[in-house]
Amino acid sequence: MKNKTLSAVALATLTLTLAACNNKQAGGADSTLVIQQSADILTLDPGTTYDTSSGQIVENMYETLVGYKGSDITKVEPVLATEWQEGQGGKEYRFTLRDGVKFHTGNDLTCADAEYTFRRNLVTNTADSGNWFLSESLLGTASNAKDDTSVTWAKISSAVRCDGDTLVFTLPAVDPAFLTKLAYIGQGVVDSRHAKEIGEWDGTEATWKDWVGKDILGGELNKQPSGTGAYKLVNRDANAISLTAFDGYWGEDKPKIKNVILQKVPEEAARVQAFLKGDADFIEVPRAIISTQLQGKPGVAVLDDLTNTTAAGFSMNQKIEAGSGMIGSGKLDGKGVPTDFFKDADVRRGFVASFDVPTYIEQVQEGKGNPRNFLLPDSFPGYDSNLEAAKFDPELAKAAFQRAWGGQVWQNGFTISVSYRAGAQTQQTAMELLKKNIESLNPKFKVNIVGKEWSELISSKNVPKEAMVMTAWAPDYADPDNFVSTFYSSTGYYAPRINAQDAQIDGWIKEARGTTDAARRDELYAQIAKRALDEAYYIIMPAQPGVFPYRDTIKGVSADTFNPMIAFTSGTYWKNLSKE
């Protein structure tokens, strides 16, 4: 709703422009990097950072023990640690920390800070953070002490401890992904002295139970962050966050850009206008806008064909909640489907063979990308490129539906409702393609498409009611287990939600998690991929190469420097960017 003065977006843009002008006057024409996006920043506390929007800021304010080496997601290198040793057959890690590192408060980095950080993450572990996979490695469970009584202070304090100035991790079992988990920005080392002073957990056994599973998203460390990163917080309000280069930064690569302003601008058109005028250096826009409105315009540069590390597919719920409204009559009578409709693998195979991947790639991805055979990015270890992806094949789909439910599906027909996130044009298009192809096979087949709010789709009480939705995952750490367990394990994230259980796959996943033999892990993941493809657990979406626009005055952006595990758009840290 507009008012007589300025709309919220206009006011926000004016505020941004004034801030940018002030910074230019203070530090020169190259002193400010301006970023515009639609999403909120949920938190500045690394201990509960679990979204890309927050992560892009936190990763520039805080640092981890190790990080990815350049653009390589398969290798880690020292950051706040200088070296480490493995012991006890891979169940102990000893880290030597870097000397001469200061936090934004001026406090010195010590082993006590790292010990506090990891213990705090284990104590406060909630579904709002990525601490579940740290807990899995160090405590043998993804749950916190409220949900799993085996979690005790003795376990936490012995799993992470300082031996003099050396940080020691003790694992209950070998975890081949442990080092890459430490590279996740959620494990950024916090200033423990500062945290305690502002009212965060005091780090003691006496109070730890008071902080178990506590919501720290909007806590004091979110309001007053203090990391060792190249940038520190200056100001934050509902529409913008401003940061400035930290003069005491220890790294050899000192920040070249003095100030960074990240602006929330909900309207896509406003972001595009600001970008074309040169008032924003990076903006959030989809591929279609880049190609139709930005590509080739003066001052605009585009980086395309970037490594994609997200996996997505349509899930098929094998036990849909009765009375959900998505299954019509609840019977296989042409007016609905039974709750276990997708329990029959031939139903799933029919849906999979009905999805026209080539047309989707052409229409939605502008011809970019390739079909996938597994819900694992093809850029990750463990992806078997020799396995042929599922094909769009109406005859194969017809044969599968004719077999399904002993012939009843083909004879009686069905009516089912499937959901997509309202406003997600790519999801809607995919659903429409699927609907068209399935309904063309048999006039008795009916697929209804329903747009729903994202909050409704992901609500735990609503998940069992959905027959089919888009499921997607971006990696927390660069290891295939983060995807394979998530999608295919009966104790993972998605499989329980679609009531899919496969004992054979569970066994292979367990073996892959417990060995450091890379070749054997690759073999196991190839076996899982083939069986999952045969059983048609998901309609797998094709890989979609990344693309983003940026102002051509920005230097340091390239395919060679892009690392998909870094949250910021350019796949690089702000300190490595500069402006002409």
TrEMBL record:
Lineage: superkingdom: Bacteria
Chain ranges of the Solute-binding protein family domain: 75-493
Keyword tags: Signal
Signal peptide: 1-19
SUPFAM superfamilies: Periplasmic binding protein-like II
Family in the record: Belongs to the bacterial solute-binding protein 5 family.
Name of the protein this chain belongs to: Peptide ABC transporter substrate-binding protein
